[in-house]
Design brief:
alpha+beta, four-stranded antiparallel β-sheet, 8 helices, 4 strands, about 10% strand
């Protein structure tokens, strides 16, 4: 029979205390910070989803209003007439709700990225937050193009978003990279795209092919009933596309409408 082995009393007590202490140890400061960071992302995502919902509701109401207004008054149903009276107030309310949701989401995004970029640069949650920032940058850039045709400003806006990914040495959000490449391609007109513009195309069809004209390069001749869109070429000068103001359709175009100025001695 093997002799029994006993730990000295003092050692046994020490081991017990150590085990109890190990079991009762709470989370570390790093673990607490990580949990708070992930919760911050969850709250941001919830607010951003709310913003997207407000945007969708507003867009749907505006689309309904536009559809009803496009119908001749005599052809509108009683239901459409009733909607026409209430929709403007509804749209105003939805706009206020959208703006409030936007402000809240932007504040949450700024707070999140401040923590993410400084304290958790390699965390997957940081990438998720950056992607939300990129989606917002894309919306702003698209609005810049739609309202002013300013592709340079739009690419600068998107470039700022790209720089965050590059600073962390992580892959750029694909949607952001694609939009940046698209807008860079529209900064200058090319012969290939110019040749795709045909007579009787609408203004929207032209925009799809050669882009939105820069707002200062739109010329309207009311006496002749002509609207001219000028598009800069990368090597200088500009091409022109001419529309009949009455129909809004192309009636002509000229590649060398504005020739490159040659400076001579």
């Amino acid at each position: 029979m093997k002799p029994s082995r006993f730990l000295p009393c003092g050692v046994a007590v020490l081991v017990a205390i150590t085990l109890i202490a190990g079991c009762s140890r709470g989370p570390s400061e790093e673990e607490i910070a990580q949990a708070q960071f992930e919760e911050q992302l969850a709250q941001l995502q919830t607010q951003y989803e709310g913003l997207q919902q407000r945007r969708a509701e507003l867009a749907a109401a505006e689309a309904t209003l536009a559809e009803i207004e496009a119908i001749k008054e005599r052809d509108r149903t009683d239901e459409q007439k009733a909607e026409l009276e209430t929709l403007p107030a509804t749209i105003e309310e939805l706009t206020v709700a959208r703006d409030a949701s936007f402000d809240a989401a932007q504040g949450a995004l700024a707070d999140f990225l401040n923590v993410a970029l400084n304290d958790f640069p390699e965390d997957p949650a940081t990438v998720a937050g950056l992607n939300i920032y990129a989606d917002e940058a894309i919306l702003i850039a698209e609005d810049t193009v739609l309202k002013a045709g300013d592709y340079k400003k739009a690419t600068d806006q998107l470039g700022s978003a790209v720089s965050y990914y590059e600073s962390l040495s992580i892959p750029v959000y694909p949607t952001l990279a694609e939009k940046l490449a698209e807008f860079e391609g529209f900064r200058f007109i090319t012969q290939e795209r110019f040749d795709l513009v045909k007579k009787d195309m609408t203004m929207d069809e032209v925009k799809e092919i050669v882009g939105v004209p820069y707002y200062q390069n739109i010329q309207v001749d009311e006496k002749r009933g002509v609207e001219t869109w000028l598009y800069r070429k990368e090597d200088g000068g500009a091409a022109a596309i001419y529309f009949k103001s009455k129909t809004g359709k192309v009636y002509g175009s000229k590649w060398d409408a504005v020739k490159t100025k040659v400076v001579t001695d």
